[in-house]
Each structure stands twice: as structure tokens, then as C-alpha cells.
# Entry
Amino acid sequence: MKDIEHNENFRILIVDDVSQNIQIVANILKAEGYQMTYAQSGKAALAKAWSHNFDLILLDIMMPEMNGFEVCIKLKQYPETKDIPVIFLTAKSDTESIVKGFKVGATDYVTKPFNRMELVARVRTHLALRESQKALQTSEEHLREAVAAKDKFFSIIAHDLRSPFHNLFHLHEFLEDDIDTFDREQLVEFFKSLCENATMTFNLLENLLSWAKTQTGSVKFAPVSFSVSGLAKNIAKLLKSSADEKNITLTSGIDEDITAYGDTDMISMILRNLVTNAIKFTPKHGKITIDGEKKDNHVEITVADTGMGISEENIRKLFRIDIQFSSFGTQGERGSGLGLILCKEFAEKNSGKIWVESEVSKGSRFKFTLPGTKNYVRKR
# Structure
């Protein structure tokens, strides 16, 4: 939140068709240290308000072509400007004009000729109220995120984590009661299913624990310079057996000399989740590649597959904690959606970003960036 004691942090738009009035207001507020921008018509005021981020607008009522009432009505119609407090500057002091001003959305008014102390006091008051409003909105957003996180947590425990355990118990009971009736080939299939369920459960638990740590702020962040190729090859080696089960070709084609700066445990978690998802949603005999390239001051890493692809509607649901979204893989594998949320948090923790490009039935390309060196880590 901006420090109310540091007026240079605040931007004020002064709107009046008479330049002398603008100069008077500007001289008064300049002495207080505010940043100011000016407009001499309603249309110019709207253009500036929509293209800049103002903390307060001082708006004259009596202007040609578009008066202050009309300008205020339009300001309140758009999300970008509807919450900016508007103080009317007017020579009118009659009750009718004042009431109309409040009806169209103004927060206050100051009459001409201006009284310096009154103008400064009203500006300070509404800037302070604006800051309090912003702080409240931020708190509400954090609360919504916390509630969404809690709902996600319990959803995973209630459904995604319970299901694989149920399958494990069911298979165990089935084998215990009728093991003598199956031949070796059938038993191999049963044990393969047990192994797959155990692996899926372990991966989900690992994601759940990692994510829980991010929510409590207990994740250790230890960035270093590392070989992107070496890390990608380790992930490919780790998940090769899972890819082989579906006859999927998994390769890493990143140049040996490409390095990045980040926490290798977090980056490994991102890659493991992205490759695991790619295996899940790629049919048999498909292809998955891990690529990377240096771009300006950062490294862009891509996990591409020839899988099912994702619709535009579902792409908008990915990486979001507030939307319960999951889907089934090519062999009925179920995902919680938690892995991608974790990928987003870890990518941003490492001063990067993550996104997806995809076409239904043609495959997906999940991409994320990392700083090339320590010098380009984003300041927190």
C-alpha cells in the first residue's frame, strides 16, 4: 500500500476547460508534492483515465460538449475507472447540482473560488479512503484465495487421494481371496496395476506436501546456476519406465551449454509434473520432447507432446486454485490439477512464468521461463 505520508506516490487528474483554474489547483497541490496530469475536455479526460492509473480525479462540472456529470457517469461504467474517487470542481453551490453529483458517482465537491486548506484537506481525505479501500480489496482477494486453497485441499483428500487407496485395497483383497485361480500373466497385470496405483498415490502425496509447504511459507528457496540439459535428462531418465509402458518416446534435446538460475528442487518438480502429465494425456506410440532455448536474459523450457490436446475453454481453467478442474488420461488416469498449480507457484517463485499452447487432438506445449543468471532475478 502506498504510504499516505509520501504524496509523490499519488497521481491526480485535474479536468477543467479553463486553463487558469487548472493552474490554480495545480499550484495548490504541487506544494503538497502530488503528481498531476491535466485535461481540458471531457473526452480528453476519459482517454487519459482509461490509459493511466490515477488515484483521484478533480473534475469540473461546467464544460462544453461533455459536462462533468457525463464524464463521471462514463468513468463509473468501466471496471478500470469505476473505483477512482471523483471530486467535482464547480462554481455551483446549489443543492440540486450537489445532489446530482453524488447520484452520478462523485465522492465529494469543492466550490470555486478555491479555498486552499479545504481543497488540500478533501484531497487528503479521499486519497486515504482510497488506500483503505484498496487494502480491503487486497484482503478480500487473499481471503478468497485462502478459501479456494482450503477447498482444493479437502477435495484432493476426499476424492483424488481416497480413490487410489480404495483401488489398492480392492486389488489386495481380490488377490488374497482368489490368487490360486489366476495364471502368471494375469498376476503380472494385477501387480502392474498395484504398482501404478502406488506410484500415482505417491506422486499425489508428494505434490500435496510440497504445495502445503508453499501455503505455510516453509519452502526453502535455494537458487543456483545449473545445467538445464542435465536436469532435464535426469527427469527423462526417472520417468522413462512410465513412458515405456505406453510405448511413448521421451527425449530431451536441450543444448549442453544452456544454463539457468533457480532452485533445482523446484525446477525438477515443475518438469516432473509436466512430463508426468504429458505421459498421462499422450496415447500409445506418441512422442514427448523436452526442449529449451536461451532468449535474451532468460531460458524458455518446453515440454511438448502429441497427446489429446486441450480446448481453449479448459486452458483458461488450468493453473487456477479457485476452479475445481481435472480430467482423465488416455488410459483412465485421473489427475487432481494440483500439479499444474504447484508448477505455477514454483515458476513464479523462480522469477519465471508458465503457460500452455495446445490444439485438441494434436497435442500440447507447456512452457515456462527461468532467469538466465542471478542478475536477472526479479526483485521481490
